[in-house]
Amino acid sequence: MLSTIHIGSSDVRVSPLGMGTWQWGDRSIWGFGNGYDENDAKAAFTASVDAGINLVDTAEIYGRGLSEVIVGECLRQTAQPLIVATKFAPLPTRLGPRTVNRALDGSLRRLGIKTIDLYQVHFPDPFIPTDMLMNILADAVEAGKVRSIGVSNYSADQMRNACEVLARRGLSLASNQVEYSLLHRTPEVNGVYAACRELNVTLIAYSPLGKGLLTGKYSPSNPPAGMRRWMPGYRGTTLERIVIVNRELTEIGSVHGKTPAQVALNWLARQPGVIPIPGAKNAEQARANAGAIGWNLSDDEADRLSQVTLEWRR
Ligand SMILES: NC(=O)c1ccc[n+]([C@@H]2O[C@H](COP(=O)([O-])OP(=O)(O)OC[C@H]3O[C@@H](n4cnc5c(N)ncnc54)[C@H](OP(=O)(O)O)[C@@H]3O)[C@@H](O)[C@H]2O)c1
Known about the structure:
About 40% of the residues lie in helices and about 15% in strands. With about 325 residues, the chain is of the alpha/beta class. The two termini are about 35 Å apart.
């Protein structure tokens, strides 16, 4: 059994690593149905739970709801108590406060649960002012539909604003889910990680493997298939520049009997208040990701990785 930690100052306790589920149902970027399917996703879920992972992160827009449906089926097939995090997407078609409650009810239905442990706003909402949005979410907590409130892709100022509104309702902001990895160290310099520490908000790190780049399997001569190769992290000279990072990950990993991906995740998980949520397409990847915790990089090894990725600290 892995030790658990509180998300922010909420009573929700999670393992130091979660499972991301964007892959489960998403065809356009991840190629769901082509090389892996629903059974693989369910096997990834089981492998993660067997390894002691208790946090599952999904969103209503992943696979247009299919990710939540698959997670819901998995939840019904396990006796383990799990922590379910999902997200409301403030899309341009969603103009009023009522859309939040409709979205929340849709997620609860697809997941087949009565309460969402962590309900997150997927990205800052241009249509509903933060005051109003946080008050709607606070109402959802009072109605028993939500246990704790999180945001995603919020700046430090947007987090502060959300915290202030929630504090007036006697609540706190539990988490901010942002991109954070050795290849995307922006939260260290844009104030978000500092604000998380100051406000006791957990930083949930998404794309912690750089969408696969930190696994060591992609290189200029072996780019990933599908749409990913056109995404910002993969374009231009990135694949050439990460060769040196993966070399360092491999070298350090060989000392511990760990893969580059496991070393990259361990580097993240050792930062106080940070919970990485790698996405896995199958049981093998999920088992490997779980092997990223339960051991420690030395300070010197962590420093070497910080040094070799300085150009991504911007
Ligand atoms: N809040 C947001 O805006 C936001 C945005 C993005 C993601 N997220 C969340 O964060 C989660 C993780 O981020 P992500 O999915 O973008 O990227 P990631 O976790 O950095 O990378 C996941 C991909 O890496 C490869 N992989 C994973 N484990 C592996 C292993 N052990 N060995 C070899 N390859 C492995 C798989 O793809 P291949 O095998 O095809 O290479 C997998 O699909 C998502 O599932 C989602 O829950 C949130």
